[in-house]
Structures are given as C-alpha cells and as structure tokens.
Amino acid sequence: MYLPTYLPTLILTFVILTLIMSFIYFYLSTHGGQDPFIKFWGFSWLFYSLSLLMLIITFDSPSVINMSLRKAFDLFNIFFLLKGAYSFIHKMLPGYWNRFCIYIIIWISIGIIYKLDIMSIYLPVSTYQIILTLTLCFVILKYWDVPVSEKTLSVCIFFIWGIGKATLSLLEVNNSVSSFYIMEIILSNILNFGVFIIYLQRTYSKIKIADRLYRIIAENATDVIFLYSLKPKPGFQYITPSVEQLTGYSPYDFYSNPKFYLQIVPSEEYDGIESIFVADNVPKEPYSKTFKIIHKSGTTIWVEIKLSTIFDKGSPIAIEGFIRDITTMKEAQAQLISSRKSRDLLLSYISHELKTPVTSILGYVNAIKDGIIETENAKKEAINIIFSKTQTLKRLIDDLIQLSKLETKQFSFNFTYVNADELAKDLVNEHLMDIKSANIRVEHKINYKALKDKILIVDPERITQVFSNIITNSIKYTSPEER
Question: In what order do the strands lie in the sheet with 235-239?
C-alpha cells in the first residue's frame, strides 16, 4: 500500500490535537459542573487518540495484534460517544449495549490469541460500529435539544464519520486505502469540535436560564441585592429595583453616583458606611452591620447590611451583599426594653409597698398583744385596720402574680355577668376603710337607681384590681392639705 511520507506526521499532529481536546473534556468534567456526558466524551476522544497512535504503529508493523488493538480503540471511541449522547439527554445507556461491547472485545481477544483472519475479526466489529453509529444518529435526531441546523449537521457528520470508519476498516484489510485516512481524521476532528461547540452552546443556554432565574428572584425580592465594584472604577454594577421601595430612590440614582450611599445616611454614619466601600478597608470574611438610613420622604429606617468581598489574585475587586429593613425588629426591641424597664419599676414599687402594710399589721398586732390597746372600740378599730392592710397586702401579692403571668403569657380574663349597682357597692365598701385609715374625708355620690337592673359583662377580679390601684395611688399622692 502506498502511503504519502507526510501522513504519519499529519496523523501525529491530529493525535496531539485530539489528546488536548480529551484533556479539556476531563478538566471540564471536574470543574464545570455535574454533567457526566463531558467525561464520556473525554474518554471517547482519548481512545480515538490511541487509535491514531496504533495507526502510526501499524504503518511500520501491520500485524494482527496491532490492527486488532486499533479496532478495539475505535470501538471504545464510538461506544463512549453513544454513552455521552444518552447522558446528554439525562438517560442511562441501555445495558445490552454494554454486553454487546464486552462480547466484541472477547471476540477480538479470541482472534488475537488464535491468530484468526483479520477480516473475520474486523467484520463483526465494523458491523457493531455501524449499528452504534445509526443508534447515535437516532438519539441525536430525536432527543437532543439543540437548534435544528446544528442537529442536522451533527447527524450528518456522525453518520459519515461512523459509516466511513467501518468501511475504511474493511478497505484497510485489502490494503486498498491510502489518502482515505486523511478524510477520516479530518471528519473525526470536525466532529470533535462540533460536539465541543454543542457543549458550549448548552452551557451558554444554562447560564442564560440561571441568569434569568436569578433576575426573577432578585428583582422580586423585598431585600436589596447589590454588586459594588471596587476596582478599577468604584461604582454600583447592579442593584435590585427593591431599593426604590426601601430608600425612595431609583437604581439609576445609585448607578450615576458611586457615593450616592452617603446621601441616604445621617451624617454621624458617614465614616462607618464609607469604610464599607473602600478597597483598603474591606474585610476578608463576610460580615454584617446595622445602621440608619433616611428615606426620601424624610423618615428614618433601620437596616442591616450583609457583605461578602470578591477577590481576584488576593486583591479585593468588588463587594456583594444585601440590605434588609429591620425597622420593625428595632422597634420591637425598643418596646421590649421599655417593657422590661416598666416591669422592673413596677416590681420595685410593689416590693417597696409590701413593707408598709406588713409594718402596720405588725404594729397593731404587737399593740394588742402587749395590752396597749385595751378598750373594745380601740381593738375593733385596730382589727379593721389590720384587715384593711391584709387586703392591701393581698392585692400587692396579686399584682406580683399578675406580673408573672404577663411575662409568661398566662394572663387571662374571666368575664361574667354582674349587676352594675352591686358591683358599685362592693367597690366602695372594699376600699372605704383604706380611705378612712388615711385620714381622708370621704364623699361619694352614686346613682344606684340609674344602675339598678343594669347588667355588665366584666371580670370582677380585674375591675377590683384596677379600682384598687386607682384608690391606692390617690391616697399615696393626696397631700395633707387636701385631706
């Protein structure tokens, strides 16, 4: 067989190109995501590179072993192409293809061991290659989600290349092939680059879908998401439309002025906010900060900003983050602090007030015990005062219990129907002794006729507690001149 002198060098060049492509596929399979078809295509072109190497060796030593090994590598080349095509559409390669491939490899091994005629080895392998090629073309034509023009071109190249390789093998047996090798190698590399372009287009489509989803999420988010470039030119690269709802200013205001953030914060916040957007001050780790901003309407809003720094070769080039309105949370915290202060004040008041009735009770009890109070009228009056102070003590203890229930959210009401005139009489009689004991002149005017037959829905215990607090405070803050 006549072979041009330049053919081995040309084939070796294509071997290098094909190996480079296979390594690119392997690199992408480990760094470009979780698409397994990239790895299968990497194996496909790796085996094709080995096939071309065996072709160069076969030129010098056209033995059955060398030719059979080349045929085996060709088989694996198209087998992994088919496996990658199935993986491209997220399907598993049917198991019978694996079994048939094993059977063919066993047949090649038998042919090498028993030194069978090369045609008897090549014919089953070429037949299997043709079936694989037709199946591959069918899968691409029916299932691949690529533009029709690219799909048609890919099917044509796959068909010509696969059928050509099988036919070339049979011609190779009869030593009737020469320059056909060049055509087969060119088609193979065109196919290789075509597959790579399809991969790039798929990746580009996935990026567009991801970008569209990101924009849908970002532009409908209530939080403000932004990207701020630090180098080479500071400025907002992206900020979500929700910034207008938060600040009253449009994204254009932020794009047109790199330091627009200073216009929406109080003057005392300038240093802290400006340090965020200076490359020399940005921290390496993500961090958060709370500060106040001034809405366009003039209202003050509390916000929390969470930031991450983007580095390039160890140098900060941008920051990304989001801003969240925490005004409600801040107001709740302030209300909680105020409630705690009120609770502590009330607790202090009750603790102090507990001493007064206890002191009075002890004083009158000791006076009766020591015989200081001797007359029946004096003892009766003392007992009435002790009773009144005991009621006061009970009320203060009840206040502590209610305070505890309020803190544990166990405070409850027990509403019931009561007669208005009876409730009025009970409230007056219960607190009349306290008022008299404070040497305060009592005058009360109640229209019992108007209240008669009136039904109220109240919690008697709570009404008594409220009325008692009013009377107690009135007694406490009534000056001697007004008594």
Answer: 235-239, 224-229, 315-325, 300-312, 287-294
- Alpha carbon 294 to its chain's center: 28
User: pLDDT tens digit string along 382-426?
Assistant: 787 777 778 777 777 776 776 666 655 555 677 888 888 888 888
* pLDDT score of 1: 47
- Based on the fold, state whether residues 208 and 248 are members of the same structural domain: no
d(CA 179, CA 163): 17
* Cα separation values, 270 from 232, 275, 381, 406, 469, Å: 23, 8, 71, 42, 49
- Which residue did the predictor score with more confidence, 170 or 103? 103
Among residues 172, 188, 216, the one where a domain terminates is: 216
Please report, for the domain that includes residue 127, its CATH number: 1.20.1070
Mean of pLDDT values over 83-106: 87
Task: Compute how many other C-beta atoms are within 10 angstroms of the C-beta atom of residue 305.
Answer: 20
- Identify residue 426 by its one-letter amino acid code: D
Residue 202: pLDDT over 50: yes
Do 39 and 177 belong together in one domain? Answer: yes
> With 60 as the cut, is the pLDDT of residue 16 above it?
yes
pLDDT of 269-288, one tens digit each? 887 787 777 767 777 788 78
Residue 310, strand partner residues: 318
At residue 246's C-alpha, the angle toward residues 240 and 249, to 5°, is: 75
For residue 334, being part of any structural domain is answered with no
To which residue do tokens 């920051």 refer?
Answer: 319
Query: 237 and 154: one domain?
Result: no
Structure confidence at residue 4 (pLDDT): 60
Tell me the per-residue pLDDT of 211-245, one tens digit each, with 9 for 90 and over.
676 666 666 667 888 888 888 788 888 888 888 88
Amino acid at 59: F
Whether residue 231 sits in one domain with residue 203:
no
- Both tokens of 52, joined, read 């071309």
Under 8 Å between Cβ of 291 and 284: no
Of the candidates 135, 340, 334, 306, the residue with the CA atom closest to the CA atom of residue 225: 306
Which residue segment(s) compose the domain that 266 sits in?
A: 224-325
Distance, CA of 254 to CA of 463 (rounded, Å): 58
Check which CATH number belongs to the domain holding 318 and give it. Answer: 3.30.450.20
Tell me the torsion sign for CA atoms 298, 299, 300, 306: negative
Compute φ and ψ for 116, nearest 5 degrees. -75, 165
d(CA 457, CA 415): 6
Same-domain pairing of 32 and 169: yes
Say if 427 falls within a structural domain: yes
67 and 175 share a domain?
A: yes
Position 343 in a domain: no
